[in-house]
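Tutorial handout. Part one gives the primary structure; part two gives the three-dimensional structure as tokens.
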Amino acid sequence: MIVNKGFSLVNIDQYITKMRFVKGNQELNSIREAGKLVSLALKESLNHARQGITEIELDQFGNTALFKEVAKKHPHSTLDYFVMSPSGKARTNMPHVFSNTRLLKKPDIIIHSRQVAINGYRAECERTFFIGEPTTEQKAVFSIAIKAQNEVLNQIKVGMKASEVNEVARVIISEAGLEEYMNHRTGHGIGIGLHEEPSFRFDNQLSLEEGMVFCVEPGIYVPEVGGFRHSDTVILTNNGAELITEYPRNIEHLIF
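Part two.
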């Protein structure tokens, strides 16, 4: 607190952050709609995944579908989005890197990552996929990444501690001998910000509440093999986790 000329300046950042933890019904409805839109855009890009196009060309298929859908169904609305499709063993090992003009080829690994916000509220969906047949080692790491995400999606619930959610994924990845390649948190809050608190970190003892919204995204990044990360957005309810993003997650649906 700073006192100057009879006025006191107080930093209220922490209070605003906490106010954003739990979303109201109107906010949740906007996030659900964002979940539909981000799933649509991701699906449209992956429908066009093929050898010989660039990362940014892959992105534009989903972008075009997104623009058309919002213009058609959401008059007088504001759209915000980002998309990244790093490809290849080296680029997918960088968790957040924007698309460039690298050509997709066979064989190849890509992490297609999207967020969409409609009227300020966001949802996220990401998929790791392959052009051509993945290697045996890539299949093995992919299966562990999927197992970790599936277990978190199955177990996350109101009353659970954020650190406990992180531990679900960490244990699975550790038992597979891959913990050294798990270099970020299991997930994060989302709403009006791209990454919001609370986060699924090892040191976060916060108890989860109804109305919180999270991206579940355990990642594994193995040099010379590739990066592996799916992300889905969930709303916590007293009846369990409501999954609001949709695209197949199993490997048989993600080889093109």
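Part three, for discussion. The mean pLDDT is 96. The chain has six helices and twelve strands.
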